[in-house]
Amino acid sequence: xxxxxxxxxxxxxxxxxxxxxxxxxxxxxxxxxxxxxxxxxxxxxxxxxxxxxxxxxxxxxxxxxxxxxxxxxxxxxxxxxxxxxxxxxxxxxxxxxxxxxxxxxxxxxxxxxxxxxxxxxxxxxxxxxxxxxxxxxxxxxxxxxxxxxxxxxxxxxxxxxxxxxxxxxxxxxxxxxxxxxxxxxxxxxxxxxxxxxxxxxxxxxxxxxxxxxxxxxxxxxxxxxxxxxxxxxxxxxxxxxxxxxxxxxxxxxxxxxxxxxxxxxxxxxxxxxxxxxxxxxxxxxxxxxxxxxxxxxxxxxxxxxxxxxxxxxxxxxxxxxxxxxxxxxxxxxxxxxxxxxxxxxxxxxxxxxxxxxxxxxxxxxxxxxxxxxxxxxxxxxxxxxxxxxxxxxxxxxxxxxxxxxxxxxxxxxxxxxxxxxxxxxxxxxxxxxxxxxxxxxxxxxxxxxxxxxxxxxxxxxxxxxxxxxxxxxxxxxxxxxxxxxxxxxxxxxxxxxxxxxxxxxxxxxxxxxxxxxxxxxxxxxx
Length: 526
Hints:
The protein is an alpha/beta fold. The chain has helices spanning 9-19, 35-43, 53-65, 76-81, 83-92, 118-124, 134-151, 161-165, 188-191, 195-217, 238-246, 263-271, 285-292, 311-319, 342-351, 382-393, 396-399, 408-424, 466-473, 487-499, 516-522, and strands at residues 2-8, 24-27, 47-49, 70-75, 98-104, 128-129, 155-160, 167-173, 222-225, 228-236, 250-255, 257-259, 275-279, 355-358, 376-377, 402-407, 431-437, 477-481, 503-509. The chain is globular and about 75 Å long.
């Protein structure tokens, strides 16, 4: 029995995870993936936010080693953080199902880059499925767990912003199974990747990928839309939807499992049409692999490599129309909310002429007018270490102006190691780190983190106190202030710490203005 409902891709993934008996959902919030775990919890699943993506994947690996089913969610740059365990677990695999959702962001709607994580599937040797709509998000998630257990391999489920957030009709099945208690089978030759065992595991991995290629050739994950012979298009993911509208007369081969590819199916399709074009968002991953197999296909011009595709762009791509694209219409630039507790902090840093090493979060908007108070931003946690690097090489007068600014969730994500580096390899001028603590993970939707004292469902949890963490590492001065309530005190404290040679952390603590009412409704952490 099925139910017809309207659901986004993120909701569909969560529903599928619940319906196929996933024991644990874990991850770190990041647009466009954030809603998956919230929805999984609403469905009745066990879901939790981890401090970062590496921790999330490792917890999920443990659950899968214990013969449970585990879902891990993250945005594309989060997979960079989780890459270390990813590459090794690809070798060993797990007896329980392990599915990793990588939500890519073509066009950088909310990201610092638009990396194409299809590259990770090839580099790590991890099978990958790419759904094109909510129905496929649901079906592919269930099938991914089945394949993971059948072949003892993690499966990458790659989605993109448009698939994550677009809604369509979904036929949801009755629950296939309930989450069952796990058990552990001792198997060190499979689970312990010392070199002697890893060499064997690598060969087994390549053999499994050959098996999966044969499975892919059987057509379960491919869809053939028969059209005219004049034009054939090979595509995947959301690009399939655009191609259907842009070229209704074309024959289309839609790929659902994009690693390993069904090369013989592709070869047969390419030979059946007069002209064969590969249409894909992002990097030329498919076209490069297909050409490397000796199959003559056309790719896209470099101009179509950037941003999302749409129907108009696909029409131009297929027509070879390289007319420069018009700039998108002007819109209101993002800004820190009126009443945001970060505003007074940035006003102070701007007025003091600080060199600010920034980080990832809503506070990155401090780079824009009227503050213009962020000078660098690389990745989560880098503000502290980048600031330390600048302190090392700048003349003393300039070095004393360097301040690292990081948020509370980001600090717990990847900032702690930077504090260790600061204490261990302290510059001659010392260093100042300002943690803008607004008691939430604001940019991605006001999620909890270990420092809020609340779990994913907002119920009370043990609270990791940031001031205790930095004191325990050995920071010389730790101050907690409210830069909004007493901006002058904050200003004088910053000047004092910059003048000294010690390692200092100032925690500017005041709840996010958008989260304040919700936080009060959860009850203050005692």
